[in-house]
Amino acid sequence: GGGSGMSGKEGSGGFRKRKHDNFPRGQKREEKENVTPSSALMTSFKSFQLEIDTRHDKYERLVKLSRDITIESKRTIFLLHRFISAPNGEEILNESEVKLDAVRRKIKQVAQELIGEDVYQFHRAISPGLQEYVEAVSFQYFIKTRSLISVEEINKQLIFTAEDREETTNTTSSSHDKQPHTWSLKITPVDYLLGVADLTGELMRLCISSVGNGDIDTPFELSQFLRQIYDGFTFIGNTGPYEVSKKLYTLKQSLAKVENACYTLKVRGSEIPKHMLADVFSTKTELIDDDGLP
Amino acid sequence: MSVSDMFIALQGVLTADQDIREDIRKVVQALEQTAREILTLLQAVHQGTGFQDIPKKCQKAREHFGTVKIQLDSLKTKFPADQYYRFHEHWRFVLQRLVFLAAFVVYLESETLVTREAVAEILGIEADRERGFHLDIEDYLSGVLTLASELSRLAVNSVTAGDYSRPLRISTFINELDSGFRLLNLKNDSLRKRYDGLKYDVKKIEEVVYDLSIRGLNKEATPGVGGEK
Questions:
Q1: Most CB contacts within 10 A, which of A116, A171, B140, B229?
Q2: Please, which residues bridge with residue B171 across strands?
Q3: Which residues bind Mg(2+) (chain B) (predicted)?
Q4: Where does residue B193 rank: exposed (0-12), middle (13-18), buried (19+ CB within 10 A)?
């Protein structure tokens, strides 16, 4: 067989051929594949290859979408932070709405990838992006209405129709015919909670910057709102998964910062002229910015 | 809805979730118990005296798989059918073990690799996700890898017990399995790590075959080298 050919390549002339057959490295491996190339076992492994590759590809596409969702949501949050200082608040809100629409189009692509799949199988791929989206959308909602958006409210916006197909180029074509006319993606309660926990960090920042702008009402409003959320999280306690209870610590810190800001405003606010409030907090802001902001 | 109402609702959802996990854990514990019993039963083949009545042991093991079926049936009722992967982690380990045990029985009986469909049938579950509680492909493959290391051990013990032909057949089998696995593009996950161990099983068996062949012990049992079976 093929043995005579390889003895030349081997270079160590002392070995006899029989020995090579029993110590298979390198060349022997190729031989093995020739044993029964189309046996039942190999046929089924070929189908496994296809199945696993398909699954990994989908996972990778979802990871990429999730990353895009994260980036765009973060940008929306940055934009919304300019809301307080800007004289043209309406404009910024509108712009943020446009950005969130773009994020939702990405989420639509996610939903399309997941048609007919078990959502939880790919949950780890998309969870970071969805949490960031919850953070962005709830931040915007707070600025507009001064209240907390519910998970149902968020999910209501994540029901998609098949109308605008032109954006659906990324998806597989084979399932197009079977697609339902509407489909949706549901944010899980845990992703919602984690997103809301992150929101509190943004609200803390908002509080500090609004003080810097001489706005004395917003901090008090925020401290009340944050306290409600904190109470909510305490109520959940360790019923939820580990990640949720982990966020509780950061949440407590954010709350403390906002409460301290309110305290300072109360005690010294009457003594200091409004236009100088910014100076009082500018030193404080630096301290706050130092620790643990995302 | 007020903030506190929202959190009360969420807390309710999370508690319900915990209850489901609790239920699942109980069934999984029972499954683990059955799996241990089957394993104990099959471990006897490694003893010199155990080689004689392999068919009888397989028979007994198959009876135990009846219990497994009942337990898996009860597991299916503990959570919504479309949330398999939400709770997958809870039964993943025991299911891989059961795949191994089923594959071991089938190998001992027929010296072939059990198909995914056949395992699913032995366990009383589906091979396809669409049809209900199913066997995940990675779990199936993990179980098969466990079989490989069990067989490399069996090869060694066969020699000790004086059965010189079995290692040759195991060698052919594991080599084919190895070629099969090399077709797969595995990610850097737990399955990949377990697959990395397969080469040591291959090596071990080939050493056994080598030991037999330099002493001419392989010819005693089988006419041709390499087990054409």
A1: B140
A2: none
A3: 150
A4: exposed
User: Model confidence over B181-220: pLDDT tens digits?
Assistant: 999 999 878 899 999 999 999 999 999 999 999 998 876 5
Q: What is the SS3 assignment for A160? A: strand
Residues of B in contact with A35 (CB under 8 A): 172, 175-176, 179
The DSSP-derived string for A175-194 is TTTT--SEEE----HHHHHH
Residue A77 in contact with residue A136, Cβ under 8 Å?
Answer: yes
Q: Which residues of B are annotated as a binding site for Mg(2+)?
A: 150
Tell me what ipTM this predicted complex has. 0.88
The answer to whether the Cβ–Cβ distance between B137 and A231 falls below 8 Å is: no
Nearest to A235 among B11, B116, B213 (CB): B11
Residues of B in contact with A243 (CB under 8 A): none
Indicate yes or no: CB of A150 within 8 angstroms of CB of B86: no
Q: Which residue has the tokens 């992006």?
A: A129
Q: Are B221 and B165 in contact (CB under 8 A)?
A: yes
Residues of A in contact with B113 (CB under 8 A): 41
Mapping DSSP to helix (H, G, I), strand (E, B) and coil, where does residue A159 land? strand
pLDDT of residue A26: 44
Supply the DSSP symbol for B134: B
Contact B85 A36 (CB under 8 A): no
What is the distance in angstroms between the Cα of B132 and the nearest Cα belonging to chain A? Answer: 11
CA angle B46, B42, B229 (to 5 degrees): 70
Q: List all residues of chain B from 110 to 139 with a beta carbon under 8 Å from chain A.
A: 113, 115-116, 129, 137-138
Q: Is the pLDDT of residue A210 over 50?
A: yes
Where helices occur in chain A by DSSP H, the ranges are 3-10, 17-22, 27-34, 40-81, 89-113, 123-145, 151-156, 189-212, 217-236, 242-268, 277-290
Distance CA A148, CA A134 (A): 11
CA dist B36 and B67 (Å) reads 12
Query: pTM of the full predicted structure?
Result: 0.81
B112-to-B1, B97, B170, B176, B222 alpha-carbon distances in Å: 61, 18, 10, 11, 18
